[in-house]
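User: My notes are a mess, but here's the protein and magnesium ion's SMILES. Can you give me a structure?
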Amino acid sequence: MHATLCDLITDLVQNSIEAGASEINLKVEETQTNLNVVIADNGKGMSAELLKKAKDPFYSDGEKHKHRKVGLGLPFLFQTAEMTQGEASIESTENIGTMVRFRFDPEHIDLPIFGNFTSAAVTLMSYGFEGNLSIERSVNGETYTVSKNELTEALGDLNDLESLTLMKQFIETNEEEINKRPDGSNRSVQSV
Ligand SMILES: Nc1ncnc2c1ncn2[C@@H]1O[C@H](COP(=O)(O)OP(=O)(O)OP(=O)(O)O)[C@@H](O)[C@H]1O
Ligand SMILES: [Mg+2]
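Assistant: No problem, the inputs look usable. Here's the predicted complex:
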């Protein structure tokens, strides 16, 4: 199961990768009152019928996990939204793409902890799929963006140990910067 919201985000981006997307956009925006996430891809999308099934907590396409017919990504998302009075939606068009959005109340007692966004981003950037992943990340109005194409251009193969280290440093520095409070102190960046 998902220990953190960053695990959930990772899982949902993985769905886009598995759908053969060549372009994935991930937006993760935190404010005092909202956590807003959008994952948009140009992958194979879903038919209306499949979309309906995908929202069902007892459905997975049956190909990936031979012994488990229950998907974890979308059901966990909808369950969390329900449990915490948040919102979650998924729109999809076959052969065009899919957009998953959610909005959670970061203060809700039943919300899983946010987790470590640097680790999630590094994992996704080095996942080794062909397409591009662009991330737009903001905390209380402070924003940075990073894309796999830009990183690859600057660092070369992202699975190379040195590139991996530099990428991690780059994302971590940006995370520290946007998590700074106006008084100069840092919001606790959870390391999970
Ligand atoms: N972005 C997407 N594009 C196309 N199809 C998708 C997308 N996201 C989910 N799906 C479809 O919805 C199904 C359910 O997704 P979900 O993440 O809940 O489970 P899963 O990916 O099958 O299994 P798990 O996430 O546990 O490995 C997928 O099997 C896939 O058919
Ligand atoms: Mg999945």
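Strands lie at 23-30, 35-41, 87-93, 97-104, 132-139, 142-147.
User: Great, I'll file this with my notes.
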